[in-house]
Amino acid sequence: MLTDRQLFILQAIVDDYIHSAEPVGSRSLSKQDGISYSPATLRNEMADLEDMGYLEKPHSSSGRIPSEQGYRHYVDHLLLPHTLSRKEIQNMRSLFAKKMMEAEQVVKQSATILSDLTSYASIVLGPEVFESKLKQVQIIPLNENAAVAILVTDTGHVENHTVSLPELLNSSDLEKIANILNDRLEGVPLYQLQKKIMTEVSGLLKQHVNSYQDALAFAEETLQKSKQEKVFYGGKTNLLSQPEFKDVDKIRMIFELLEEDHTMHELLKPDQNGLMIRIGQENANEAFEDCSIISATYSFNGNPVGTIGIVGPTRMEYPRVIGLIEHLSKDLSIALTNLYTNRG
Amino acid sequence: MLTDRQLFILQAIVDDYIHSAEPVGSRSLSKQDGISYSPATLRNEMADLEDMGYLEKPHSSSGRIPSEQGYRHYVDHLLLPHTLSRKEIQNMRSLFAKKMMEAEQVVKQSATILSDLTSYASIVLGPEVFESKLKQVQIIPLNENAAVAILVTDTGHVENHTVSLPELLNSSDLEKIANILNDRLEGVPLYQLQKKIMTEVSGLLKQHVNSYQDALAFAEETLQKSKQEKVFYGGKTNLLSQPEFKDVDKIRMIFELLEEDHTMHELLKPDQNGLMIRIGQENANEAFEDCSIISATYSFNGNPVGTIGIVGPTRMEYPRVIGLIEHLSKDLSIALTNLYTNRG
DNA sequence: GTTAGCACTCAATATGTTCGAGTGCTAAAT
DNA sequence: ATTTAGCACTCGAACATATTGAGTGCTAAC
Lengths: 344, 344
Hints:
The structure is a homodimer.
Chain A: H1 4-20, H2 26-31, H3 39-51, E1 55-56, E2 65-66, H4 68-78, H5 86-97, H6 103-118, E3 121-125, E4 134-141, E5 146-153, E6 158-164, H7 171-185, H8 193-208, H9 212-223, E7 231-234, H10 248-259, H11 261-268, E8 275-279, E9 291-300, E10 303-313, H12 318-341
Antiparallel strand pairs in A: 1-2, 3-7, 3-10, 4-5, 5-6, 8-9, 9-10
Helix pairs in contact in A: 1-3, 1-4, 5-6, 6-12, 7-8, 8-9
Chain A binds a DNA duplex through helix 2 and helix 3.
């Protein structure tokens, strides 16, 4: 078990290292304000902390840096909740002050704000509003072979894609199909659309449209949902300013990983509601072994729908970043919920 | 004026340096296949080429590297048109083999292919189809305060945005407005929409809708066009593998510039139809002083609508990249044109 | 339990040496 | 009049060798 003094010293070392990025030695530490022990005493305690795995030495005669376990302990037990500065709060307010009309806009803007405030890279998983419901389907024929299908949800989200037109369907068929879809599927959650084709729509199609097979296939194509794995980044280049990433190979691995939307989605998918902190190897990915990820889910109407997070070096300003993310994820939830419920 | 032999030597040096990234010396050059001069002779010629500004020495006793003027001369006069390999052509074919239905998809895919084939970064300015015409306007009310406006063009492009609903407009007004807009504006090119509001729509609105002011403002908001400055990138991380960018500061400047969509748009905007090659400082941007950009416009129905290009080190495989870009921009133009005219 | 003192370690830095691929110049060969 | 061989010279890269200084561990005194 750690003594109070050891905890205090551990905290001082982490705090120092987070800001200096240099190994912390006993001499310089003892000179710090608020520390009244001699270098020798500190050396003893530091040696103990190292034995217990909280500190590491880059080489035998250097100062100490926190180990991953050290960061973990710092984050779990020592972290003082960081009160955001007036300016930071002001900055975030300004984000939601602009009257933004669209969720994607709000989310993108959040990513930018977060990376600007932290000088790390921000990652935001776009809002996956599962329970958003179909408001209307539009089928707009472009010519004989193609039409545009447009799905609008009650949250104002619009999806569109081009679909090919089976030759056997004429424009009156299209109208019928569109009417049936709108009639039967309004208010159905998007994720249930494909299912409901069979139960709700198929029968009616058979009844009213001649080439039933084509019509059914067409309806399915129309309602197909685009993959919702959108990942937004803010300030990726910020990482290039961090001393731990001055090595091009490291940064290349990281950037390559960030480009894999799918992997990032897996990595950040809200496995639990609330704040998540992954330090170094906890990320279970070689490219991120020197990175920490702090993320939080944001909600819509009380249900988590997306994730907002920060990627930075393990030597991260945890207190500040945690404060910012907690605040921003809450604000974002409120903003999104307001965006749609103020209207309805 | 350069002698034939000097041209030949210049070409050999550029070719060598492009592949080795190492300064080319007289001894190693003379050993190359196809070169029958002694090192001493080459030295004399190289000294002359240096005096004339086509070559440079990194330091006094090193081999030569091409100067920007050297590259320029190489590109303008020496370049052998590179015949694409079977595999390259096959790769590009596969791009257009997949039956893609949407322009944006095709364009993004082109960017990926291009960066994969070259190991440089590709940049594509999205298709700005000026003469694309309005097919249909949809106004879908979400609730009392907001509606979604959807514009569909004859090319299948869909734009949507949320607009706020003036209180004085009821749903029957909305329907009237939508009808008027569709009636009067179908077939009008997008870029003329705002103008036509006054000439075509304003009178009818006054006639049929009570709160004329609101209706007019609403119509304007509905028809507002989103800024079309889309820039797509492919393989940005490829640049991190180039030896000239092993310095993090350089790469940071480049990446920061690439993130400024607007600047990149300015830089690549099709000032002239056809192929553009900018070498080093010709890019008039400090961040790109060690980069070359090769780009070409692609067309829709014979009118240039976008740009596809490559950013790489000045030491670029010009012949190959030029071949690829010329080919791809043509294929892209054909694909886009087919995409829409096969249908109509 | 705390601290001063001391010998030791090791990265970073500076300094020196060698090596080799390169150059320019001159004189001989073609 | 070119071309080439020969030679002295240059300079970065690579390696070895001090020097420095902030740091450590250990022991003994406080």
